[in-house]
Amino acid sequence: MKYLFIAEKPSLMREVRSCYRNHLIEVKKAIGDIDFIALAGHACRNAEPNDYEIWNNKWEDISYPMIPSQWIIKPIKDKLPILKKIKEAVDSYDGIIVGTDSDVEGYGIYYLVEYYLGIQNMKALRFMEHSLTDNEILHSLLTMTDYHTDPVHIHSTQSFLLRSQMDWLYGMNATRLATSRTGQLLTIGRVKAPTLKLVYDNSTAIENFKPETYYYLQTDYGTFKAVMIGKDEKPVKFAKPDSNLKIPLEGIVADKKETITKTHAPKLYDLPSLQMDAGQMFGYTPAKTLELVQSLYEKHKVISYPRTQCRYVSSEKAKEFPSMLKKMSVFQEFVPYLSKIDDISHVYKDKQVVNDAEVAKESHDALLPTSKTPVLSEMSKDEIEICRLIYKKLLAQFLPPLTESKTRMDIKHGDSIFRVNGKIVVDLGWRALYGTLKDNVLPNLNLQESIVAKKMEYSKQVTKPPRRLTQSSLIEAMERIANHVEDEQLRASLANSKGIGTPATRDSIISDLISRGYMTDKKGLYITSDGKKYIESLQEIDIISPVFAAKMDYEIKKIQRGEVQYQEVYKMMLQNLKNTCLQLEKLKPKTTSYVCPHCNNTMTNERWESVCKNCGFHLPYKILNVSLDDEMIQALLNGEKTNSFTFKKKDGSSFQAKLQMTKDGISFDFSSGVSCPFCGKDVKLNKYGCFCDCGLKLFRSIAGKTLTDKDFELLLKKRKTSIKKNFKKKNGDTFNAGLQLTDEKTLQFYFS
């Protein structure tokens, strides 16, 4: 038998080929001869609507929804040589080994290639990658199953098929239909739109937040304080201090409950939970964390398959726990904990850790160490941090639970009850890996024992605005979309939906929304004016609802698990698509309040611009890379200049300028707004320096330092800057000095 191994990544191809050569006799005996080729990512895609003759029209003239009766698959241009090579060689093989990534996206990459090349009837075996160690690769080669008959592979392929088709159907239909009806370009994605809606809702909630002040009534006993509670056993909120409230200082212990609690270590990492923690602890973006885990997996081979959405281990994989624990000793801080582990049998019985049913749902285990010992000297600081997190989370499973003694005490003063909670750590257990916890020790008081408060006082509280989403917490919001659902029944049904998007795509979705200018990341995610316009244009449309997207993704996930049939869900989603298109059909062009500066007629809103139908004046909504919001356009029409922007040309170069309205339309203004001290004219500021027609030339770079616009402003207005540090001499020495502008229009240093 002779097979062609089609890998998704060249790196995987090299590793599998190396293993094949290392175990040539064993593999040949079990499988046969193997040749290798790598696709290097996606090689084919769903065709654009323009590739279908029926829809090769203006968007306004298309009958929606567009639903292909026969899907057209097209090759990606730069992958044609690889596809041609496979096509020419495939007849010389007895079968294909599918070596794309072992996630839904990987199944899809091969499905599209298979469909395009017309090799659906060829025998195919599925290689499942779990780690890139030699032993694991060999095991995967020797345990391959039939790609076309194994239910796991069938369901995963169908899951991709439905996801990609729905992305196409909703994205293509919604984008074209909404754009043609509103006159403004609205690039709508089935997952991108609801993801942006999460950021929009968060930004709006923060903008509209108004702090509210309320008060708690506390009793102060000297060594501890207690808070007044109501019949609902919650702290009583007072709108303002009540001076008429008469409560005696003398009280008795009315109730006392003592409990011992044991808290299990948190579940193992999957990719989303790792991205969340890495973002919170180290400030890594989801894309950065994915890059690091890929490196740990492919380059260093010290962790298992990274794009997993499972937080459990199979009973088969759990047999490697002793070996995994040994590898952890490379982190010196783990050694004291490892030395205390003598019996791990309880972990095998713990369904929070070892759970075959949960692993079967995702086809992969949680993120785990491999059989290879990490060589920390060969890893970057960031790689070490991520590796440590993954190893620590597994180590925690073998340590005792966090054991705490908790005391709840109710003290009665008159008719009022005041409550205090105390806590003492009995055994830190696994929690010791993450630092210590503070005890809150209460005095040993008995039931009905008298106690006198030193004073009663109101404690002022102020409500806080919602936390601004970061890229990491947005990943969390995308995964835990059920938390945004008010309906209890629906929330319960979506609790295990895994949210919207996939671990492989969420970071790219976020990056795309930022690059398109719909949101910005400034130590937190902010909706832009374009993002607001986008969401508000579609406010009543189902497609922007995160819950709507989550329900769709839940159904797609159920196909992967074999719980529902592909055709059943496809039919249901087509009906949803038709309803969405009916909603979009009702959208109307946005009426503008812009008045033509030439003839005073009201202008008409179109896709890229506002146009005066009377005199033909055009007002663009975007100039190069800079989008103009309503406030900016109104300012221009009123004869005002905008702030300075950095514009990027098609060749990649950039320049700074303001915008102004002229009789010919919007033009660039390169003036600085600062007058030349020698001739009184407006100087020009750009990336090279400060220049004036009178001959003044001040360059930005001087003695190893770059001057700012503020520096030039000081030089022009006050003829000198403040003292600056670390100018560099030619020999490398540094010095501190200020700059002053001479009457000869030159710069010179001063030192005091």
Which structural traits does this protein have?
752 residues; alpha+beta; Rossmann fold; Topoisomerase I, domain 2; Topoisomerase I, domain 3; 6 domains; 7-stranded antiparallel sheet; 5-stranded mixed sheet
Summarize the SSE layout with pairings.
Layout: E1 2-7, H1 10-22, H2 24-30, E2 33-38, E3 44-46, E4 73-75, H3 80-89, E5 95-99, H4 104-117, E6 123-126, H5 134-142, E7 145-146, H6 151-182, H7 192-207, E8 213-220, E9 225-229, E10 250-263, H8 271-282, H9 286-298, H10 315-318, H11 321-327, H12 335-339, H13 345-348, H14 356-362, H15 381-397, E11 402-413, E12 416-427, E13 450-452, E14 455-462, H16 471-479, H17 488-494, H18 506-515, E15 519-521, E16 525-527, H19 529-537, H20 546-560, H21 566-585, E17 604-605, E18 609-611, E19 618-620, E20 622-623, E21 626-627, H22 630-637, E22 645-648, E23 654-662, E24 665-669, E25 671-675, E26 682-685, E27 689-691, E28 697-699, E29 701-702, E30 705-706, H23 709-718, E31 724-728, E32 734-741, E33 747-750
Parallel strand pairs: 1-2, 1-5, 5-6
Antiparallel strand pairs: 3-4, 6-7, 8-9, 8-14, 9-12, 10-11, 10-13, 11-12, 15-16, 17-18, 18-19, 20-21, 22-23, 23-24, 25-26, 26-27, 27-28, 29-30, 31-32, 32-33
Helix pairs in contact: 1-5, 4-6, 6-20, 6-21, 7-20, 8-9, 8-16, 9-15
Give the radius of gyration: 33 Å
The largest β sheet comes out as: 7 strands, antiparallel
**What is the CATH superfamily classification of the largest domain?**
Topoisomerase I, domain 2
Spatial strand sequence of the major β-sheet: 13-10-11-12-9-8-14
Query: What is the CATH topology assignment of the largest domain?
Result: Topoisomerase I, domain 2
Q: Tally of extended strands?
A: 33
- Helix vs. strand class: alpha+beta
**Total helical elements:** 23
Q: What's the helical proportion of residues?
A: 25-40%
Shape category: globular
How many angstroms does the end-to-end distance come to? 85 Å
Overall CATH class of the largest domain: Mainly Alpha
Task: Return the domain count.
Answer: 6
User: Kindly state the mean pLDDT as a whole number?
Assistant: 90
Low-confidence stretches: none
User: Beta-strand level of the residues, as a percent range?
Assistant: 15-25%
Name of the CATH architecture of the largest domain: Orthogonal Bundle
